[in-house]
Design a protein that fits this description.
The longest helix is centred in the first third of the chain and has 32 residues, at 2-33. The relative contact order is 0.10. This protein is of the alpha+beta class and 232 residues long. The protein is built from 5 helices and 13 strands. It has 3 domains: 2-33; 42-184, no CATH class; 188-232, no CATH class. The strands form 2 sheets. A 10-stranded antiparallel sheet has the order 5-4-3-2-6-7-8-9-12-13. A 3-stranded mixed sheet has the order 1-11-10, with no helix packed on it.
């Protein structure tokens, strides 16, 4: 009887040990998987209190998804994108502002603007765009046979009126590009440009613009238009 009891106790201790080892193994694997987010350089805290406006896409931290250049993807990350410097930041549990140590190829960010929810996708890797490198992020308005992308940027400007103090402010300096058959074209928000460069579907595009009262100054309408073209 004592021998059986001793055997049972030994088995319980052994199984408990295996569970602990397994739990440690799982914890180690999870830690390894998020290592790129932990092994970071601290971001510089550059003050812009004396500059009106914001250098960010959105002032508030917003939830997003990050895809690294090697294909690894991380969900539910608090993000903030600095459009003035072209830098993506994330926030850790200690509420620190940090940058990614591994290259980021794409991120999606969800935020509120003018009381409306927005979900936007930014990618890099685009070639032959003046003033940009393959690491520069562009907002993707439409992706497919034709790509419509937008370089969202903020520049700091200074204005000085007579007998008044110097005023510094951030202003939008965004540029649009249409990529067709590998050719990058600075995008012009007019009907003539669109029909000339997507000439294989002129009739369909003209009809779509007329029937849907497309506003070519609106990013949302432009996105829908090029997405419609890609569906043809």
């Amino acid at each position: 009887m004592k021998t059986k009891l001793l055997l049972i106790i030994t088995m319980v201790i052994t199984l408990s040990g295996l569970k602990n080892v397994n739990a440690q193994s799982i914890a180690a694997e999870q830690y390894y998987n998020i290592q790129p987010l932990l092994n970071y350089p601290h971001a510089e805290d550059k003050k812009t209190d004396d500059v009106a406006g914001t250098p960010y896409l959105n002032d508030q931290w917003a939830m997003g998804v990050v895809k690294l250049a090697d294909g690894r993807t991380y969900k539910d990350v608090l993000l903030k994108y600095d459009e003035a410097r072209g830098v993506l930041y994330f926030q850790d549990k200690k509420v620190q502002t940090l940058t990614f140590v591994d290259p980021v190829s794409e991120f999606k960010i969800n935020y509120i603007a003018n009381d409306q929810p927005k979900e936007e996708t930014f990618k890099n890797g685009f070639e032959n765009i003046p003033g940009s490198s393959e690491l520069s992020f562009f907002k993707v308005l439409s992706d497919g046979t034709a790509q419509l992308i937008k370089k969202t940027a903020k520049i700091q400007v200074e204005t000085k009126e007579y007998n008044r103090p110097l005023i510094k402010s951030f202003q939008d300096d965004s540029k649009y590009y249409l990529i067709v058959s590998g050719k990058v074209l600075p995008f012009k928000k007019n009907k003539k440009f669109i029909l000339a460069n997507l000439d294989n579907k002129q009739v369909e595009l003209e009809s779509y613009m007329k029937n849907n009262n497309v506003d070519l100054k609106s990013d949302a309408d432009l996105s829908k238009l090029i997405t419609y073209y890609n569906s043809l």
